[in-house]
Amino acid sequence: MTITFIPLSLPATADAPKLARFGREVRGADPGNLNPEQFIEIRQALYEHDVLLFRDVTITPEQQYALTKFFDPESQTYGHGQNKTESNQKSILHPDLKTIPRVPQVQVIGNGTVYNHEGLAQAKLKHPSHATFHKTQISPKDEANGVTRFYRWHIDAALYDLSPPRVTTLYGVTVPRGSPQVCRYDDDTGDELPVPLGTTAFVSGKTMFDILPPELKSLAVRTKVKYAPHPYVWMAPARALPTGLGIESEGLELPLKELPPWEEARRKILPVLWKNPGTGQLHFQVHPCGAIELFVDALPEGAKREGALFPDGAHVTDLKEVRDLLYRMQRPAISPNLVYPHDWHEKDLVLFHNRGVLHSVVGALSEDQVRVFHQCNLAASDDPAGPSVEDVHNWA
Ligand SMILES: [Fe+2]
User: Fold this and answer.
1) N or C: which end of the chain has fewer CB within 10 A?
2) CA 170 – ligand 1 centroid, Å
3) Ligand 1 mean position to 359 CA, how many Å?
4) How far does the centroid of ligand 1 lie from the alpha carbon of residue 101, in Å?
5) What is the C-alpha separation between 363 and 349, in angstroms, rounded?
6) Ligand 1 center to residue 271 CA distance, Å?
7) Distance 3 CA to ligand 1 centre (A)
8) What is the pTM of this model?
9) What percentage of the chain carries pLDDT values higher than 90?
């Protein structure tokens, strides 16, 4: 049977030409039982289209782990490592993660209480809410009227010691139906986006780079980001911006000496732009919440200095300046017309290129709206490649 790749249906808010290559529904392949030829075809499609959707599939946790591992056969542990260490207990991610006992690389995430699920006698799940993470809140009245926010734009990655997973697989076991909501940006732009209840929102890192003006493309191609050690512990006391795209700079982060033990050599310094292994294109891949410093290379010889930012290079250590620069480069790409909010149905399996997109949990669920998803990603066997010498020459 041949595999077909069908464009996803985009919401009316989407800039269809800009999202033309984004996302495909896959038909004609069983994701739990791919042969090597089918896998190679699907991997290439994922690199080209960022997000793949399989509708109405049945896949066990074992099969989901195997599918995820296909993308990186040497990878073994869950993307955030074992879910039992001290650093994970204190992490802001900890309450969101419940491990399937017989396949610890697969997590159960969602909302409400589930019983006798895949070896878990009882699991209390909580859909993350902006109310526990953002500095400002939606009023109870607006919330009752279905107003919500992006929770946190991110890449699935530990950002300390472990390398960012190549792919994340998300399987919708139980999906609550309910009225659509309106995701409000609350950043003085007036931007808002109608979203299905409990959507996962995606934006393309390629688009994030492509739409930048030349001086910010030049900065992006020359810059590396240094992440905080144990970033999810470090950021735990801090509060996020209303767009969920980074943290308010109020000095609330944990001092580095108060973090669980860490070593400088295990910290992550990653390029702003990650080179897509299937297309060679550059994707703007920064987890804005975990960034702590920037290293900017000087312009290469022959590059135009006029209008360039940091033409002689820089080591930016002021946290507010780091965040402001990243926000200036990332905010345009989360505009409503560039967001794909997935409308989940039960038995949907979504694969996303975690090194090519940013994504966010969205929406507020009440306790009786039970949502059960299986999520798998694996700490990669390598770090992502950055821009080539030729890329720097082309964009700096
Ligand atoms: Fe995620």
Assistant:
1) N
2) 9
3) 6
4) 21
5) 20
6) 20
7) 27
8) 0.96
9) 92
What the block records as the tokens of 154 is 């991110």
In angstroms, the CA 117 to CA 123 distance is: 8
Is 350 a residue whose pLDDT tops 80?
A: yes
> From the CA of 342, how far away is ligand 1's center (Å)?
14
CB 42, CB 5: distance < 8 Å: no
Q: How many CB atoms lie within 10 A of CB 248?
A: 16
- Residue 359, C-beta contacts closer than 8 angstroms, at least 6 positions apart: 153, 154, 200, 201, 202, 203, 352
Match 């490592």 to its residue by tokens: 81
Q: What is the pLDDT of residue 89?
A: 62
Q: 249 CA to middle of ligand 1, Å?
A: 23
163-174 in b/e burial notation, b at 16+ Cβ within 10 A?
A: bbbbbbbbbbbe
The strand pair at 103-117 and 98-100 is best described as: antiparallel
d(CA 338, CA 50): 14
Q: Rounded to the nearest whole angstrom, what is the distance from the C-alpha of residue 389 to the centroid of ligand 1?
A: 31
Digit-coded pLDDT (tens) for 14-49:
999 999 999 999 999 999 999 999 999 999 999 999
Residue 97 has pLDDT above 70, yes or no: no
Distance 12 CA to ligand 1 centre (A): 25
Domains, in order of start, for the chain:
4-206+339-377 (3.60.130), 207-331+387-395 (no CATH)
- 297 CB contacts (<8 Å, ≥6 apart)? 222, 223, 313, 392
- d(CA 376, ligand 1 centre) in Å: 10
Task: Find the 360 Cα to ligand 1 centroid distance in Å.
Answer: 7
Percentage of residues in the chain having pLDDT higher than 70 = 96
How far is ligand 1, taken at its centre, from the CA of residue 327, in Å?
Answer: 19
